[in-house]
Write a structure and sequence with these properties.
A hairpin with a 4-residue loop joins strand 10 and strand 11. The protein starts with 6 loop residues before the first helix and ends with a strand. It is built from 16 helices and 29 strands. The protein has a six-stranded antiparallel β-sheet with strand order 18-19-21-20-22-25, sandwiched between helices. A five-stranded antiparallel β-sheet has the order 5-6-7-8-9, covered by helices on one side. It is of the alpha+beta class. Among the domains are: 149 residues, ibrinogen binding protein from staphylococcus aureus fold (Roll); 102 residues, no CATH class; 197 residues, no CATH class.
């Protein structure tokens, strides 16, 4: 099974990742697994929502966009915190593969300049954070080689380049380089030369040989054969660049490889095709990582079963001891009764002797009378505790039972026997308890085995939990609401402002703009209907609440509306307009000192329950459930958590809430 990307895979992934360009970094997470580390960058893309970019190094080296949920650490490691510090809200402006190598650079633009995040997917893999001058701020792993060092404060250097870059094969000099490489390395198998000249893995080098019809182990090729290999290389890379068929290759019903095109090597094997290579890579490595998780889970279950089996072993040993002790105490009590007369005489004799002499004298008499029928039964005297140890025997069913029995000289024979019976009784009570505990432990072991089998099977079948990406309507790419039946949309930034005006504004619509720099265009989609004054007032509040005034904590600002034909991209003579900026000509219909009043709630619209924001009057009139908000410095994550709990019965997730909240922070003021 493939456990790391080839440079061909990296090329295809980088091509598809271009959709992230112009997105902004929200958060960075670092997950340390048993054999690999995953850096997850949460990026918000204009019109595309939030996506999670995964860069994995270690045993499993890959880059993809993931739809699978991962358990993120509550306390982010220092590298993730460093990225959050430098790249919070940074704009991703470029993603590139370096020299067709397994190196990808992510360029981020911030107020402090350009930063780069370099992912190296060879060796053990590494992720290196650079400043605009390519000086290393921090690597995920410090590494040192003879040709370069990956350590803080040193200049980042790329590994040595390969002779040919597959992107340049159309140039005539490319064939000359290719040919000279073969002519200068005679005696080396052609598959190895192809791998070295392009820096590609054996799989694609073999594919080129097969497409050219040349034995991969052949040496000393003719110019005609070299030409065939070159043409086959061009054909392969053209297919990789322009005619991909992303797929997972299965072998014996198991994921075996993930490739971007059909390969001759895999003809006859089952394949699972995808619309994008990123999706195929995500599914492939999610399944692969699941096997690791299953193995870890199996070890965890096995350890718990082993722990319970050790408990059971100790319980069985205790049960055996309790039974043996109970039986011995019962026998000792029985032996006292069987020899009742002798035991009673002996105890009386000892007590009487003790009244007349000390223990030393008594012990001497006993030693001198070993042959005495009664005194000869005494084996030991423990004067400190007032006990004598005697040997008693009895014949039961032709079996002679003999035991050493301790007797308390302060008690008579009956009391000593009862003492042993009481001990036996207590032990039998403990036996019952330990037998119940044993049954419970056995049951627990069986349950663990069944539960383990079930959970492992489910994990194997389901892989990691896959997020269901919601289908968004076109207006959900923007800030939006519904006021008195009119759909209202507003931009989020300069890019979406321009998209709204150019693509989604019709001639009968009404366009609001708060009188503050950087405010979004807010458009009432009239559908040709007349808009009443109440609606205009409510939209005015919506427009100012979603402007920068909210973030600055203003209580009220002016806003105005115009018709679409008053908005132009043509600047006055000698002036220049930035992206997203427009010129407004003609009369402006002002709403002075419009209060920033906004709430969030759920509304039934377009055949579904959706969450969005609206002014209070609209919330009361049209929304199913809602709360009021006010500007605040409260951590947005905590607010989202509170709102998610409030609207938990409506299938609302974090992203649904984050997409519609006003700029800056907020807090709930009325539920």
């Amino acid at each position: 099974m493939k456990s790391e990307m080839t440079n061909v895979d990296v090329c295809c992934v980088v091509n598809e990742l271009q959709n992230l360009v112009n997105g902004r970094l929200d958060k960075a997470f670092l997950i340390d697994n048993e054999q690999n580390r995953e850096l997850i960058l949460k990026i918000h893309v204009p019109e595309g929502g939030s996506r999670e970019l995964v860069i994995s190094i270690g045993k499993y080296k890959y880059i993809t966009l993931t739809n699978y949920e991962r358990e993120k650490p509550k306390l982010p490691p220092s590298f993730a915190m460093l990225l959050r510090k430098y790249l919070k809200n940074a704009k991703l402006i470029k993603i590139e593969q370096v020299n067709f190598d397994r190196i990808v650079i992510f360029h981020f633009e911030t107020r402090d300049g350009i930063y780069k995040l370099v992912a190296e997917l060879f060796g053990d893999g590494n992720i290196i954070f650079l400043n605009s001058e390519d000086i290393i701020i921090a690597p995920l792993r410090v590494e040192r080689w003879s040709s370069r060092n990956i350590v803080p404060k040193e200049e980042y250097k790329f590994p040595p380049q390969k002779p040919l870059n597959p992107y340049n094969l159309e140039f005539s000099i490319a064939y000359e380089v290719f040919k000279d490489y073969f002519l200068n390395n005679k005696g080396v198998e052609c598959v190895r030369l192809i791998s070295r000249v392009f820096g590609i893995g054996g799989l694609y080098a073999e594919e080129i040989c097969e497409r050219a019809g040349i034995d991969k182990k052949k040496k000393d090729l003719s110019e005609e054969e070299i030409k065939k290999l070159f043409e086959a290389s061009k054909n392969l890379f053209n297919e990789i660049f322009n005619n991909r068929k992303p797929q997972i290759v299965l072998k014996d019903n198991e994921y075996f490889d993930v490739v971007p095109i059909d390969l001759k090597k895999y003809e006859g094997l089952e394949k699972k095709y995808y619309n994008s290579f990123l999706e195929a890579v995500d599914d492939y490595f999610a399944k692969f990582l699941t096997k690791v998780e299953v193995k870890k889970e199996k070890s965890k279950i096995e350890r718990e079963i082993e722990r319970q089996e050790n408990i059971l072993k100790r319980q069985l040993e205790t049960l055996k001891k309790y039974k043996e002790d109970a039986e011995k105490n019962q026998i000792k009590g029985d032996l006292i009764y069987a020899n009742y007369q002798i035991v009673e005489e002996l105890l009386n004799a000892i007590r009487q002797a003790r009244e007349k002499m000390d223990w030393a004298r008594i012990k001497k008499i006993i030693r001198e009378n070993k042959e005495h029928p009664i005194l000869g039964l005494i084996e030991n005297i423990n004067e400190n505790v007032g006990e004598i140890v005697i040997r008693l025997k009895s014949e039961v069913d032709d079996n002679v039972i003999e035991e050493r029995v301790s007797l308390d000289i302060r008690k008579n024979a009956f009391e000593n026997a009862e003492s042993y019976y009481e001990k036996a009784k207590k032990l039998r009570g403990k036996i019952e308890g330990i037998e119940n505990a044993i049954e419970l432990t056995k049951k627990k072991i069986e349950e663990l085995k069944k539960k383990g089998e079930k959970e492992l099977k489910e994990k194997e079948n389901l892989q990691m939990k896959k997020k269901v990406r919601k289908e968004r309507k076109w207006y959900e790419k923007f800030k939006w609401t519904v006021i008195n039946g009119f759909l209202v949309i507003a931009g989020k930034d300069a890019i979406t402002n321009e998209i709204i005006i150019k693509k989604y504004t019709d001639k009968d619509d009404i366009v609001f703009h708060a009188d503050i720099q950087g405010a979004p265009f807010t458009v009432i989609k009239t559908g040709g209907k007349e808009v009443d004054e109440e609606t205009l007032e409510e939209v005015a509040k919506f427009s100012v609440s979603h402007s920068r005034a909210w973030k600055l904590g203003y209580g009220a600002i002016d806003t105005y509306w115009v018709k679409p034909e008053q908005i132009s991209k043509t600047a006055e003579s000698g002036e220049y307009l930035k992206r997203g900026a427009f010129v407004i000509r003609g009369e402006r219909h002002y709403y002075r000192n419009t209060p920033l009043e906004l709430g969030i709630g759920v509304i039934e619209y377009d055949g579904d329950i959706k969450i969005t924001t609206a002014p209070p009057k609209t919330l009361q009139k049209s929304f199913i459930k809602w709360v009021l908000l006010k500007p605040s410095n409260k951590e947005k994550g905590k607010v989202v958590k509170e709102l998610k709990e409030i609207f938990k019965n409506y299938g609302i997730d974090d992203e649904d809430i984050l997409r519609v909240l006003p700029p800056g922070g907020c807090e709930i003021i009325k539920k």
